[in-house]
Amino acid sequence: MGGPLKVRASETDRGWICPASLHGDEDEVRVLSQSGEAANLGNAVHEVMARIVQLELEHVPANLVTDACEKYGVTDVDKATMCCWNGIKVLTELRPFVGKESAVEFQMREVLPEGLFELSGRADIMARGIDQRLGLPVVLIVDWKTGSKTEDGRHYNQMLSYASLGLEENQAAQAVKVVLAWLAEGERSVKTYLRADVEKWRNEELPRDLYWDGKSYVPGEQCRWCPRMASCPGHASWVEANRVSVVGWQPSPLAQPEMLAQALAAIPQLEDGIKAVKLAAKQMLETRGEDIPLREGGFLHLVERKGALKVDAAPTLAKLRADFDLTQERLDAMVTITKDALGDVLRDQFPQGEKGKGADKFLAELEASGAAKRQPPVRWVEVRREAKEA
Ligand code: SF4
Fold this sequence. Notes:
The protein is α/β, with parallel strands linked by helices. The protein has helices at 12-17, 37-54, 62-72, 77-94, 156-169, 195-210, 233-247, 257-288, 313-323, 328-334, 339-349, 355-369, and strands at 5-8, 103-111, 117-131, 136-145, 175-182, 187-194, 292-293, 299-300. Strands 1, 2, 3, 4, 5 and 6 form a 6-stranded mixed β-sheet that branches. A two-stranded antiparallel sheet has the order 7-8.
């Protein structure tokens, strides 16, 4: 293949796990993710959020959401609305940095030193300002996410890719703040990087992470999003090896402790095999959509249900009050307070050094009054490697 390898920011974390996923022959069969309800929701929410930023709105206009949902074929309008409200919360935190002069849906591109890679990505918001803490000119990049939040650390390269692209577009900036806003869950991953650190990552770490020796494959969870899966020899060998390890397993007699020990020793490998076979079946169903017949009858079939509806207490109570004649007691009974949210509020109420003690005292008083109830203890069995004390 001639020219630099084209890599999108969103692919760099998968490329770090399995560099082979970014390479391959030009005539190889590639399966690009099909558009589905999840992709449609993403498109609709991105479109509404772009309008909200451009118009500096502090609410979510219902007509914008319904129009976008209709345009992209989204059936779960409530979920799209909730995502946009979570987006407004993020924007409120980012003001005055973000305003109507901020760039939205801005396409960024840069060729990395030595011309090995061409990195690209789209900033859902790009804004400039001065970071008060650092006292430096900074560029802000926001990426709206409508899928489920992945663990922190799983998007390390993606965040740095946005950082690098943002700095390339803004040569005067000495630092960059990247916000991945997980709109379905109302969470965010936020990192601020200095230019020197980003350049080191871009010039040294990234080329090393994405280097492929032309023969090694690292199959796993990420194959699900890999366009090479349909014709990948690494993925095919991995599925076959795990299939054989599960199908070929023979239980040993368990009558004696040593037999039991032998069977226990085989469990980790077998569990890995079972997990991999289930994952491969799921990936095949998701990408090819064909049912898999089961020996005992029936099929393994891909089903999609609406996600659980998460209700935001404050606007819901306001609407209930406005629409119906409900007593305050009835409204209070509907509100559930999570321990995390309560902890956040309590931490703000006590001075530094007394936060933990103050919050514990408040919780103990709640428990004593019956306002907070403790669940029964949870028991589980775990393996302890250390020797038992005599
Ligand atoms: S399908 Fe899996 S193993 Fe094959 S290139 Fe893609 S990520 Fe790597």
